[in-house]
């Protein structure tokens, strides 16, 4: 198996919560080499893929039907404060986290029983 693809499996298995430096050490290559080969094989750097996985896990952790503890959500996403979390959220969605939830709640009210009304299904 190519080093980039094994690394992507680790990133996926940890939902992006892995230190990229640890991956380069485990692969026995420099972080620069890992990033270059990873981008050639996967299409993005390992850091970018981990960021994408962390964000997806964060969005799936939001229950639009209940109260949301933004501090816990930000911490779970690896951010030390809500300001950085909000910036990351806007970078991915173009919306603030609160606006995202408002839009999601509106959508679910207008489309009850929609697939987005439940947790994501397993890929298995």
TrEMBL record:
Q: Which residues form the HTH araC/xylS-type domain?
A: 20-103
Q: Which residues form a coiled coil?
A: none
The keyword Transcription belongs to this UniProt entry's keyword annotation: yes
What Gene3D superfamilies does this protein's entry cite?
A: Homeodomain-like
A Pfam family matched in the record? HTH_18
The highest taxon in the source lineage is Bacteria
The protein's name: Helix-turn-helix domain-containing protein
Q: Which organism is it from?
A: Streptomyces kaempferi
Q: What is the lineage of its organism?
A: Bacteria, Bacillati, Actinomycetota, Actinomycetes, Kitasatosporales
